[in-house]
Write a structure and sequence with these properties.
There is one protein chain. By secondary structure, the protein is mostly helical. The chain is 50% helix and 11% strand. Strands 1-3-2 form a three-stranded antiparallel sheet. β2 and β3 form a beta hairpin. The longest helix has 26 residues, at 97-122. The protein is globular and about 55 Å long.
Length: 124
């Protein structure tokens, strides 16, 4: 592969060059694994949430960062957004099928980490 050039493939052999900076899959992975992306996907695993419910469930996230993270995850097709025509508007977020598929291993990873920490603290 020529340095700095992403190879084109036929539609039947569509694969992503994930180590190339212009790869769409890489952008999505960056959004999912960002500091807040992981927590948004985990928080939405069990319920659809309104913006402020989501903000309150993820301690430490600012409204600005939550809005930016949600915007990226909606654009990537991981999260859906519905605006209810009320005053003020109520915005609800949930996971798409793609978002659930990506979020499940993250939830499993969190479960493995917390179980391991529980065992480590019990041994102390």
């Amino acid at each position: 592969m020529t340095e700095g050039v992403q190879l084109e493939r036929s539609a039947a052999d569509k694969r992503y060059e994930v180590f190339h900076t212009d790869c769409a899959a890489r952008d999505t992975v960056d959004h999912v694994t960002s500091r807040w992306g992981v927590w948004v996907l985990i928080a939405l695993q069990s319920n659809d949430l309104r913006f402020f419910e989501l903000r309150d469930s993820i301690r430490g996230i600012s409204e600005k960062m939550l809005a930016q993270t949600l915007r990226a995850l909606v654009q990537d097709g991981l999260v859906w957004r519905v605006v209810e025509p009320t005053t003020p508007p109520q915005v609800t977020y949930g996971l798409t099928e793609f978002g659930r598929d990506v979020g499940e291993p993250l939830q499993d990873l969190l479960g493995r980490i917390t179980r391991r920490l529980d065992r480590a603290h019990a041994d102390m």
